[in-house]
Design a protein that fits this description.
Number of helices of chain A: 17
Helix content of chain A: 55-70%
Largest sheet of chain A: 3 strands, antiparallel
Structural class of chain A: mainly alpha
Structural class of chain B: alpha/beta
Strand content of chain B: 25-35%
Helix content of chain B: 25-40%
Radius of gyration of chain B: 17 Å
Number of domains of chain B: 2
Distance between the termini of chain B: 33 Å
Number of helices of chain B: 8
CATH superfamily of the largest domain in chain B: P-loop containing nucleotide triphosphate hydrolases
Number of strands of chain B: 10
Shape of chain B: globular
Mean pLDDT of chain A: 89
Low-confidence stretches of chain B: none
Strand content of chain A: under 5%
Number of strands of chain A: 3
Mean pLDDT of chain B: 91
CATH topology of the largest domain in chain B: Rossmann fold
Largest sheet of chain B: 6 strands, mixed
CATH class of the largest domain in chain B: Alpha Beta
CATH architecture of the largest domain in chain B: 3-Layer(aba) Sandwich
Strand order of the largest sheet of chain A: 1-2-3
Oligomer: heterodimer
Radius of gyration of chain A: 29 Å
Distance between the termini of chain A: 19 Å
Strand order of the largest sheet of chain B: 6-7-8-3-9-10
Low-confidence stretches of chain A: none
Order of helices and strands of chain B: EEEHEEHEHHHEHEHEEH
Shape of chain A: elongated
Number of domains of chain A: 1
Chain lengths: ~475, ~230
């Protein structure tokens, strides 16, 4: 029975010019978007690889010098791009791609791609995620808005009902009739993306599991839209009313709610201004050990404690260079200050995310967007993860340099120069994003919301058919 | 086969059908006459379970329509005034679809036979229905009834808008089905067809069945007079 219902729906849809034209346009746009994004991805990856290699060469090419000079000379941590960012660019363009790693300071990521774009970029870009999140639901609406109203308008609904068919079966057949062409189109898009992404060579390795997971999430998104389209169609008196109602749902769900969520989150839990944040960090730093000022109160206290611990009367008698030791303690103290302030920022981020998650009940767009970005490693959480990894590397780097200074020179010998071999002995920064299992675990609530949407949408569909 | 007992339907306190008692036996063609709003379509819709009765009983093939709405539909076929099929599908595909919905499955050749039996020309079977005339669409409706092996036909002004030739062909098909034992309840405005085709005639006025008579007991002229007398 279902086969018969689906066959007829597909026959009608495929024979109507409406779907053929709309489907072709969507497919064409997606292919263009994928190829544009692939070109951009390759170019960015090339630039990243070049910059990363140059930066490492610059670091390793330093001559013999004092390790603390090298610490101030600094180096960069580059955020890698991942193949799935080609499908969903997420917030990548707005969060910077590299962090300058230096002594005493935790820096923000720099060089946002958005900063290099012209004002025209404000009009938006043709990217695969734009098509998957905004255009495909419109296609679902186009196919599904008149699924029931058309039957009512031409009088075939009564003829169907007179055949003794259960309305639930009819609803399921209609749903499959709307969902199958969209799912086939989505499958084709992901297959094309998969083939392209797996041929990236040196520019990243595709996780087919993540791609499959992303595909399933988008299919769930379209399944919800298909249900909503049929519910509205079942409850509407005419196709025109149904289409307008569904477009209102699309505008609210895909445009208004996400933007309102941003405004509400910012209003309720605002991030501190950059200047205020820097001032708060500077104040905390001034209250403790900075490593450079041996006459400060904190430095004097550390000196007394160290002498006592090693049971010596002056710094020259210590088995290491106290300058290097003090420098390291200063780094540790400053790292704690950064940890404290960044923890506050993260807490605000979590609170803002909470606002978004609260609003996911109003729109299936939000959980799908979050999951898609997480799987593509282009969300804020991954950016925080990268930022923390870069900070841990910076702390380790400073420790290695300070220890070299402390272990290989005497107190007061600021003329000490470490052998240039040290620079290449320190491993380069490398970053591994969260594992898929961690991403999935972190997004449990989003999965729950999508599941809730699916259950409600199907329940609504079956209930609405009673009104037919 | 078709039986209504004290069948009543009210809409917001307004009585659209008032204690209708009616029976259509196997092979009978019962024609319901009456002006617009007399309750003819309401009666058909109650038999189809498209609407629920306020009171009374509707029985098809000894089954209570309200208790077994899906089962009763297995034995009936319905043809409305405008049988609008799926324009993008062919006549054959439409037939396959609607017959399939009732749980019956036939080969395309077999379905073609039903279309032939309903009088649809062979070259039209594989044409898209959007090019069909109303008469051709009604023939597909009859083919559905034939393929479904319906025991009863519920027709709501099926000949309205058909040209005399098509109307005559349709009536011939009804008689043919009647000969096969199919019970027919037809709401119509066409007094001539009612007298020519029907075995029984009922006249309705304001939800009440005011007259019931055998078609053999009255001639065309008297039927018209009787009808007009009730309408005044």
């Amino acid at each position: 029975m279902q086969k018969l219902l689906v066959k007829k729906e597909l026959q009608e849809i495929l024979r109507s010019g409406q779907f053929r034209i709309a489907g072709l346009i969507v497919l064409l746009l997606t292919v263009i978007a994928i190829f544009i994004s692939a070109g951009y991805y390759r170019s960015v990856q090339q630039q990243h690889a070049q910059a990363q290699s140059n930066e490492r060469n610059v670091w390793e090419s330093q001559d013999d010098k004092n390790p603390h000079s090298a610490a101030h000379y600094g180096t960069y941590a580059f955020k890698p791009k991942y193949p799935l960012s080609l499908v969903d660019q997420g917030v990548d363009k707005f969060v910077g791609i590299s962090i300058f790693l230096e002594a005493h300071s935790r820096n923000e990521a720099q060089y946002m791609a958005a900063a290099d774009q012209t004002g025209l970029a404000r009009f938006g870009e043709l990217t695969p995620d734009f098509i998957l999140l905004f255009i495909m639901p419109l296609l679902v609406i186009l196919i599904g808005h008149n699924a029931f109203t058309r039957e009512k308008e031409r009088g075939t609904l009564n003829l169907i009902k007179s055949q003794g068919l259960s309305l639930h079966k009819l609803a399921m057949g209609k749903w499959l009739g709307v969902f199958i062409p969209v799912a086939a189109l989505t499958l084709a898009i992901f297959l094309l993306a998969g083939i392209l992404l797996s041929s990236l060579g040196d520019f990243g390795e595709l996780s087919w599991t993540s791609l499959l997971m992303m595909l399933l999430i988008y299919l769930a998104y379209y399944a919800i839209f298909a249900c909503v389209s049929l519910i509205i169609s079942a409850l509407s008196k005419s196709s025109g009313i149904s289409l307008v109602s569904l477009l209102a749902f699309w505008i609210i769900g895909c445009l208004a709610v996400p933007k309102a969520a941003t405004n509400i989150a910012e209003l309720k839990y605002p991030y501190p201004a950059k200047q205020a944040f820097d001032e708060a960090v500077a104040y905390d730093k001034s209250q403790g050990l900075d490593g450079h000022d041996p006459w400060s109160k904190a430095a004097k206290k550390l000196e007394e404690e160290t002498l006592k611990a090693y049971n010596v009367s002056n710094l020259q008698e210590l088995p290491f260079n106290y300058d290097g030791y003090r420098m390291q303690k200063g780094e540790e103290h400053e790292a704690e200050i950064y940890f404290k302030h960044y923890k506050e920022l993260k807490s605000i981020h979590e609170q803002q995310t909470g606002v978004y998650r609260g609003l996911t009940l109003l729109s299936p767009y939000l959980p799908v967007r979050f999951l898609s970005m997480s799987l593509a490693h282009t969300d804020y959480s991954t950016h925080w993860h990268f930022s923390d990894a870069a900070e841990n590397y910076r702390i380790g780097l400073q420790q290695a340099l300070n220890e070299n200074f402390a272990d290989n020179s005497e107190y007061g010998n600021w003329a000490y120069k470490a052998d240039k071999a040290l620079w290449s002995d320190i491993p380069a920064f490398s970053y591994a994003p969260p594992e898929l299992s961690d991403v999935l675990a972190h997004n449990g609530q989003n999965f729950a919301v999508i599941s809730g949407w699916l259950i409600l949408a199907f329940a609504g569909l079956f209930l609405s058919t009673k009104r037919l | 086969m078709l039986h209504a007992e004290n069948l009543t339907k009210e809409y917001d306190g307004n009585r659209a059908l008032d204690a209708l008692n009616l029976s259509v036996g196997a092979g009978d063609i019962y024609c319901l006459l009456g002006a617009n709003g007399a309750g003819k379509s309401t009666t058909i819709n109650l038999f189809l379970n498209f609407i629920k009765p306020t009171a009374g009983l509707v029985v098809i093939d000894q089954m209570d329509v309200n208790k077994e709405p899906l089962k009763t539909k297995e034995v009936i076929a319905y043809i409305p005034e405008n049988l609008n099929l799926y324009g993008e599908l062919t006549g054959l595909e439409n037939l396959e679809y609607f017959v399939g919905l009732s749980g019956k499955k036939y080969s395309r050749d077999h379905l073609s036979d039903y279309l032939n039996e309903a009088g649809l020309q062979a070259n039209a079977h594989r044409q898209r229905v959007k090019g069909y005339s109303k008469g051709m669409r009604q023939k597909v409706g009859i083919a559905i009834a034939l393929a479904k092996r319906a025991k009863a036909l519920l027709l709501d002004e099926p000949t309205s808008g058909l040209d005399p030739k098509a109307s005559n062909e349709f009536s011939e098909l009804l008689v043919k089905l009647s000969d096969q034992g199919v019970a027919t309840l037809m709401a119509t405005h066409d007094l001539f067809r009612a007298k020519e085709t029907g075995t029984d005639i009922g006249i309705m006025k304001a939800g009440v069945l005011v007259e019931q008579l055998s078609a053999d007991d009255i001639n065309h002229s008297d039927l018209e007079k009787l009808y007009l007398a009730h309408m005044n």
